[in-house]
Amino acid sequence: MILRRPSAAPANGAGRTATATRSGPPPLESLDPRRLRALPAAELPLLAERIRRFLVARVCATGGHLGPNLGVVELTMALHRVFDSPRDALLFDTGHQSYVHKILTGRAGGFGMLRQQGGLSGYPSRTESEHDWVENSHASTALAYADGLAKALRLTGAAADRTVLAVVGDGALTGGAAWEGLNNIGAAPDRPVIVVLNDNGRSYAPTTGGLAAHLADLRERLGRPGVASPPTVFEQCGLAYLGPVDGHDIGALEDALRQARDLRRPVVVHVLTRKGRGYEPAERDRADHLHGVGVLDPATGRPIVPGAPSWTSVFGREMARIGARRPALVAVTAAMLLPVGLGPFAEAFPDRVYDVGIAEQHAVGSAAGLAMGGLHPVVCLYGTFLNRAVDQLLMDVALHRLPVTFVLDRAGITGPDGPSHHGAWDMALLGAVPGLRMAAPRDPVRLCELLDEAIADDTGPTAIRFPKATASVEVPALARVEDVDVLHRSPRRRQDVLLVSISAMAERCLDAAGLLERYGLGTTVVDPRWITPVNPFLPRLAARHRLVVTVEDGCRAGGAGSLIAQACVDAAFPVPVLNLGLPREFIGAGDREELLDEHGLSAERIAGSVLDACGTLFDPDGAVPIGR
User: Which residue among 9, 38, 448, 622 is buried most deeply as judged by most CB within 10 Å?
Assistant: First the structure.
């Protein structure tokens, strides 16, 4: 259905209700849905302008998702004026477009601590507000929530005067889970769910695939009202279709949302928005550098302090270099070509990069097919998004022993994006995959080295993980023994403690070794380079020490350290093994270094844990307890 505004209605909702008051909209810090609904329509454009200025100022100061939220200001205002949150459930997919929702539900005062430890989450958060139903910062999930919630309201008799809405970005519809949700929602015409399709033609990058072409055709309807069109894909799935609607015209949005509410059936409201709306640097940013940002100069949209080289950039340069000498190398990404560092490779080899959209399961399954066809695919994902494709990794890649390399960016603690984005589970998941070799480089030099080794391996799947951080300095090895790098050995015959550094923990382990030597403990520090399978040299080396301590920036339960402990048991070497790593819990937002320290992975706390395990709590020179 093509929506058309009545010709007598002023644009932007002006004149719809009472005349504007002289005082204008209330301060953002005092806004709530009730006050928003009471505002005269003529004041809404001014409120939208205030919200945009607020977003630019606050997000440039703290970092966060800027472009997506600038694009949904009017849409979010209209949602809260037509519907009664939290009685009506607003579900945001993805959650990074919820900043305006937070402002309109009484949380503007918290933006000074946005995405900081103890501060406001960058995503919906059930602990923050009753208006946040879910904490869905992964894409394509809200339609499943909406389907289940609508079913629950129907069974409990609460559905008659309540509405479930899912605000879904067009990029999220490239994920298979979204279509599973649509399939179920459209099959129940008597169970109303409103799907608000926020279509800006982009996710992290331009939306790809056949759906993008269909939406582009639908967008053209806005300019040719009255022209007959075939049914949309949504109507063919059983949902009504309203749109397209100008997503920056509050009056038109309110009309469409009321019409959708009154239908009392599953319906898609197709809303056209512009990412970065109202902020010139973001509007002209077609490379999506202002999608998610660090601290910026709000006048220019550029970083105040130029960024140092990152692990991601090191990977990107090396990937392009390897690609130049290996024509069978191809890259696969899930709507994040630039964030995972594939820009240089794509520029050099544009026909060897496949962006499948926000569809990690398809990315891995498709990579299996590429490998079957004689190519070596490198699947580039954030560590947290690997979770979404574990079945494909196991059954489509590993079971077939296919040479697919997985590159996991932002592994371990990522920092301000919080519990859903920490890459804490990758080593525990990958460690259980038969035949998979997993590497965890300690520094960027080893990243390049291990990437080359992984891509040269045609015997089965490989994986490499690295953190979201500035590229660290090189940590040289004293020697390489049976493919294990020895980083430090105490200058004494007896070796008490073997510290096994996993991933980017080497500098912390070396500092801890220095502290332990002050307490009379001889230490050896090694980097196994390849975590799985466990190198058989490690149990033999462990047997020469009184205690083995593994240190990793991943989940301790089932992680890399537990594999080493099991290898020692299997080799019948009865040496005690202490595993240090992240706890079995969801870790909140915060600075990466501070969160690692908080969870026992600072040099001081590593040394303290070792001393506790050894029962050595006194300085050998004179009964001075270790400070912890």
Answer: 448
